[in-house]
Every structure is written in structure tokens, then in C-alpha cells.
Amino acid sequence: MRIGLAANTLHHNHDDAALFHWLRACAQGIRELDISLHAVGRTYDAIVRLGVLADYSGLVRYPYGHEGGLMKLVAEVVGMPEPGRVLDGAIYLMNPVSPSSTFPEAVALKRQCVIHQKPFISTVASARDWIEMERIYAGLSPDPGADPLHALETQTVALIAHDAMKPQMMAYASDHFDVLSRFARRVGTGTTGQQLNELAWSRGWPQDKTWVDRYQSGPMGGDAQIADLVLERRCQRAIFFEDPHVARQHEADIQLLERAVTTITDEAVCMTSPRVAARWAVAAQRRVALREG
């Protein structure tokens, strides 16, 4: 498995930075899964400096960002015709208030991951969760260190979908209804929330109870309302099916939610495509079975 890796300076400029939180927690899993990390210049240099992946041959250096390193990650997420130049996803730990998070290559990296249904991982919690998911698929025993991420009965999940992605969200919720019902609370925006409630009632959820607590529609401020929940640490996971092919009139509101997630980088998990979210849901079920077995 080949994963692009970049971290904003804020996340690697000292020994207790976010990048190293993730690497210390997941170094063993990275080695067990034999993941190739294709790291942009300064991110690579910081990892080598700290020695957290010492002697690991799967760490590959790319050019600095100003030399096109991040652009190369975008191209390889799409897939280049040369052998060995296809990435299976990308981890990009962003500083939400840095202008670099809105640079074309940063936006394009996320967009191409979404288009090609590959993981785009923008927080430490998401990266930690992804490693555990892949460990479960590889048949490895659950990591007790990941238990807090899988305590769904204590968490809130946001279920959000752009108009063109609402059918995929309904299909996802139907296929993984039991997993989503484990959460202590589900929240959603506008029409998506109403459609999810109707789905739940058709599945036997009590008619006098909502399955999803509805906020405003996205254009009317629902994304901002849920961003506030994230910032207050009252929403731990966002499943946000984005349509990358259309212009979004409420782009600023969407970015607000995305920035809220990256602000709470050690605690908030975000998934932005149906394939990635479905893979997580199956792994979550398998993990419960392994823990109980």
C-alpha cells in the first residue's frame, strides 16, 4: 500500500507535534502493514530527524512543497502511467488557519482523493483510525490503544451529503444501519437528516423518536452549526459525502466544517467518500466481533 504524506510545519516543528502523535501510536501498525509512506520534503526530514521510523525502508522522500512535492502526490493519487506511480490515498495534516491549506495543490489533493474514492486523511484521529481499520482487514488483533476511537456508544456522528450524493448516503445508512445505530447520537443537515429519519422509521426505529437530530440545511448554516459541535468536542466523527464536480455556493460554510475537524486533529475523524466510509463500517463490525471473541 502506497500513501502520500504531508504535514504543515505546525504539525512537525517540535517533538510533540501532531505528526509524531500519529507516528508514535501507529509505527508498529505501519511496519506490520508494510505501508510505503511517500513523504513531501520537510515532512520526510522531520520524521528522519526524530527517528520515529528508524531503518524503515518504506519511507520515501518527495521534493519540498515549493519544488512540487505536493503536486506530485496529486498526480499519483490520480495515477501516472509509469510503473509504481499510483498512490492509494493521502494523509495531509493541515494547519486550518494557514493559507497553505487553500493552495491549489492542497485543494486538488483532497478533490482527487474524493473523485477516485481513496482515503483523504486530514487529522491525527483519522490517520490513527485508518491504520486500525487496515489492521483489522489484514487479520491482526485489535490495538487496545485504538479503543477510544471505537467507543461509538459514547460518540456523536455527523451524517452530511451534498445533493448529488444523497442517494449514496441513503444507501450507506441502509447498508450499515446497525453500526450507525451504535452511536449515542447522530446529527445531520436539512434534507439529508429528514431522509435518514424516514429510512430509520422504515427500518423499525420508534416513530416517536428521531434517528438523526436535524440542523439547518447547509446553505442556511447547518455546516456551521455542526462545526460548532465539533469544536466543543460534542461531535467526534463526520461522514461527509462531498460532490467534487459542482460549484458550491456555500463553500465558506463547508470549509468552516472542514477546518473545525482539522482544528481538533487529535480527536475528530472525518471520512469524505462512500467507499472509504463503507470500508470503515465493515471494519468496525469486525473489530467488535474480534474483541468479543
Brief descriptors of the model:
293 residues, alpha/beta, Rossmann fold, 2 domains, five-stranded parallel beta sheet
Please explain how this structure is put together.
This protein is α/β, with parallel strands linked by helices and 293 residues long. The protein has 2 domains: 2-122, Rossmann fold (3-Layer(aba) Sandwich), CATH 3.40.50; 144-292, 3-Layer(aba) Sandwich (Rossmann fold), CATH 3.40.50.1380. Helix content is 45%, strand content 15%. It has 11 helices and 10 strands. The strands form 2 sheets. It has a 5-stranded parallel beta sheet, sandwiched between helices. The protein has a 5-stranded parallel beta sheet with strand order 8-7-6-9-10. β1, α1 and β2 (36-40) form a beta-alpha-beta unit. The longest helix is centred in the last third of the chain and has 19 residues, at 274-292. It is globular, with a radius of gyration of 19 Å. The chain starts with a strand and ends with a helix. The mean pLDDT is 93.
Question: In angstroms, what separates the terminal alpha carbons?
Answer: 28 Å
CATH arch. level architecture of the largest domain? 3-Layer(aba) Sandwich
Mean pLDDT: 93
Radius of gyration: 19 Å
**Unreliable stretches:** none
Order of helices and strands: EHEHEHEHEHEHHEHEHEHEH
Q: How many β-strand stretches?
A: 10
Main sheet: which strands, in order across?
Answer: 3-2-1-4-5
- Tell me the β content: 15-25%
CATH superfamily of the largest domain: Methylglyoxal synthase-like domain
Total helical segments: 11
Structural class designation: alpha/beta
CATH topological fold name of the largest domain: Rossmann fold
> What is the CATH top level name of the largest domain?
Alpha Beta
Helix content range: 40-55%
Largest sheet: 5 strands, parallel
Which geometry do the CA atoms define? Answer: globular
